[in-house]
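Hey team,

Filing this mostly as a record. A colleague (T.K.) asked me to run one chain through the structure pipeline before their review meeting, and I want the input and output archived in the tracker in case anyone asks later how it was produced. No errors, nothing strange. Just documentation.

Input sequence:
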Amino acid sequence: MKILVLADVESKYLWDYFEKSKLDGIDLILSCGDLKPQYLSFLASFTKSPVLYVRGNHDDCYEENPPEGCICIEDKIYIYEGIRIMGLGGSIRYKNGKNQYTQKQMKRRINRLWFQLHKNKGIDILLTHAPAEGINDGFDSVHQGFSAFVDVLDMYKPKYFIHGHIHKNYQSNFVREQKYNDTTVINGYERYIIEI
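Output structure:
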């Protein structure tokens, strides 16, 4: 399965210089948030593949203007072709905002998914906007990761943890892909393709 991952900035390659053939062979599109709803709707209109998304900390507009033709997987486990994907959008709370959470609030969100996690015998992909604490997160309070995501990785050992929020230009040592135990951690900034 070929998965197109998107996050944080609209890819000129896919929007300004779009050709339908660029989506050939893509089986699933995953958005990690902070993208214009029009961008996701545009891509959804040119593919038969599902476009799944979580909200980023700048996606307050999604409440009034959600991406058309796309599926929000916030606070749920979505199964596609046998792949179990858990979605948890938002970032650490650094000011008032609908898609910002304290460490305790994120932990409560995950605790409410306990039954789904148990019923589905875990997950294959953890899809979030923010990174996990200490794993590819930032040094400032705005880009701090969630400790509860580390707990999910330790307990359920998903094959992939896909996040956004950390832009390529934020750090000189930008990391696109790394390992955390048995989990491949991917920063979905702009666009990235994985095959599973």
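Quick notes for T.K.: The chain has one domain: 2-195. The mean pLDDT is 95.
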